[in-house]
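task queued by scheduler; priority normal; single chain, no ligands, no partner chains; default sampling; output format set to structure tokens
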Amino acid sequence: MRALPLKSLRFATLLGLMFGALSLGEARAANPLELNFWLNGPRYDGAVVDCERALPTIATQFWEKESSFWNSSLKITGFAAVHEIAFRPWQSDNIPRRYCTGDAMLNDGKVRKVHFSIIEDGGFSGYGNGVEWCVVGLDRNWAYNPSCRAARP
């Protein structure tokens, strides 16, 4: 391996010292024009739809996941006993979520629990409500394991 010339080594050292000195400078707050100048943060008002409004989305996404990724013909044919278990269970400045649970009837004749949450502004690119869900016993990629516990509050 060839050694660097002394001139290049001095230049690199000088450059490193200059950048190091610049980084030791005092950080200053933004000036008045930069403060709150078109920097609108999220404005959550807790407008999350009821549990029943998410059921068609869950049924469609379940069928798409089962047929596309797991080569399964399972479909959700109906829901029963759907109810809310929590709304904004954490401090109020978090993203509003409504947590729900219910029974899902599948086309194989089995009834399974489904846990889901509806998230304000959680849809594609932050538009509309988003839905996260898990069907107990069919969380094949273990995203919400164990027994869909991570899909609950």
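post-processing summary
- The longest helix spans residues 6-23.
- Strands lie at 76-87, 97-106, 111-119, 130-135.
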